[in-house]
Structures are given as structure tokens and as C-alpha cells.
Amino acid sequence: MDLELYQVDAFADTVFSGNPAAVIPLYEWLSDDLMQNIAMENNLSETAFFVRKGEYFELRWFTPESEVDLCGHATLASAHVLYEHLDYDDPVVVFETKSGRLFVDRENGFYSMDFPAWPFHEIQVTERVAAALGARPDKLYMGHRDMMAVFENEAQVRELKPDFRLVAKVDGLCIICTAPGLDYDFVSRFFTPDVSIPEDPVTGSAHCMLVPYWAKRLGKSQLTAFQASARGGVLKCEDLGDRVKLSGQAVTYMKGMIVL
């Protein structure tokens, strides 16, 4: 069995930046074990698989260790593969996922994704979290999946040196760290060692919490964001109430074939 594979740098306008994702188009679903093994072999933060079902596509995402319920950069990468390599020409791509239907359109080189806005509530800043991050945030919030630590300024976020062993033990799947930006409305970093990704380069799903938070705090619905990882990535964001719109670019790094 031969499977096409594309590696795409998402939220990037040049290769070697943004967040790399593998994308594998399928005619029918493989077994969960096989898809998990492929994701482990790819050893990227996410491998996306999709199958066409009439007018929409079923889409699933796998880290090297497990399947996840939402991944922004691999969704963007999947839309890029459809438009750039598989002759898809409809105005909007509709993906059916574990997080419901997701819509992606393309305009002027940017892919715009319609994602759910995730609710969150404030919790106490604990010594456990401060020790894990190596710095004490001003505020701490808990969503249905991730924890979000808010710092006073961009430098604090950029200079974080987390203890990933301790980060893996705090509540939630991941920790989002964020602060007001100097050149952007806000900056962030995203730590998730629990799924073998110590720091994710650019994380669309994190902005399902970040955008509602910063939209309310800054009193504006349209925002620009920068994820301040080593690779870095820019996102254009819009708060739509119970939804968020996330836009970014993508570049194909590699096309290949998996031989099984």
C-alpha cells in the first residue's frame, strides 16, 4: 500500500518557520493503530488524515502518542494540500471532526479557519505552576483542555525556561503562556510535554482560548498574534462570540510516498 504524504509549514510564508504538519489524504480510513504508528514514524507534532465524504472531508489529527480533538495548524495544512496539490477549487473546505464542523477558506494567500471559542475560568496561581514555568504568572485560567497563564509583558513569556517534567504534571493537557505584545496585540508560547511535544511552534487550537481573552481585555474583535517559539508564527485573529476566526499562510516543504 502506497500513501501520499505532504509536509507543510503552517502559519508561515517561508519554509523552516511556522509549525510543520504531515498531511495524508486517504480514500478510506486506515485502522487507528496504523494511523498512530504513521504519526509516530513521522515524529512531527501532528499528522493529519482526511477522507472525502461527498461535499465535506472527515479529518483526524494524531500526535506521535495519541489522537487529539482539535489541531489548528494541521487543519490549515490540510486545506493547503487540497487547494495547492489536489485541485480543490470550491470556495470553502468543510472538515467534519471531533470538534464539530470546521470551515476553511482561502483569500489572497491566507487560509481562514472558523473554530469554536473555548470557555475558561480563573483559578488560583499555584506554586506548582510557577515552579513548572520557572516564573509566576499574574493570572491563571483553566479551560476544558488547557491551562492559560497570563504574564505582564512579552519579555517574560519569551524568557520562560520551563521544567517540562513538572509541566507534564500540572492540570490540563497543555499550558498556554501569554502576554501583551510589542509589535502584535499579544504573544504566546505553548507547552505540552504530556504528548511528546515540549513546545509546539505555532498552535491554532490555543487561540480558541487566547482570542476570546484578549478580545475582551483589549476591547477589540480583530487582533494580530505572534507565537514566540524558536520557529515563530503569525496569526490574524477575529473574535466572533462563540467562534473565532484564525488566518495564516502555509508553504509546502516536502511531497513523498509512504510504502507499507
From TrEMBL:
Pfam families, sorted: PhzC-PhzF
UniProt key word Transmembrane helix: no
Transmembrane annotation, as ranges: none
Key words of the record: Isomerase
Ribonucleoprotein keyword on record: no
Domain of life per record: Bacteria
InterPro entries, alphabetized: Phenazine_PhzF-like
Family, per entry: Belongs to the PhzF family.
Name this protein carries in UniProt: PhzF family phenazine biosynthesis protein
Organism: Pseudodesulfovibrio nedwellii
